[in-house]
Predict the 3D structure of the following.
Amino acid sequence: MNTTMQMMEMHTDMSMPGMDMAAMQKCIEACSACEQACTMCASCMMGEGTAMHMEMCANTADMANTMMRMMLRTSGMQMASMMAMLSAMMTQAEACAAECMKYADMHEDCRMCAEVCRQCAMACREMMASMSDSMD
């Protein structure tokens, strides 16, 4: 079991009733990987004509970090705002993946970043689904 999840489970008052902790762990890990890949991809793309790409990756990295930190603070979690953040993160990750794919033939890091962004979007989608299920 992941150390972060062990720490969260030690404080049962931190988890939301009905929260799928496995989906949350997967989403936290996907956001962390997304932040790292996007930060590295943005750094590798410094040069003429890549400002849009660099900024897309940098913004996605920032959003992934914020999303991850929000999930780690479950006692302050409000369902509607968490769903909105997950939706925004999913949208940003999908947009970043599309932007990275424009450069994937020329840069392997862009292809890899696009894949990590897609995985992050999928983890956010799964987290949202598990949260919707707990609201029923």
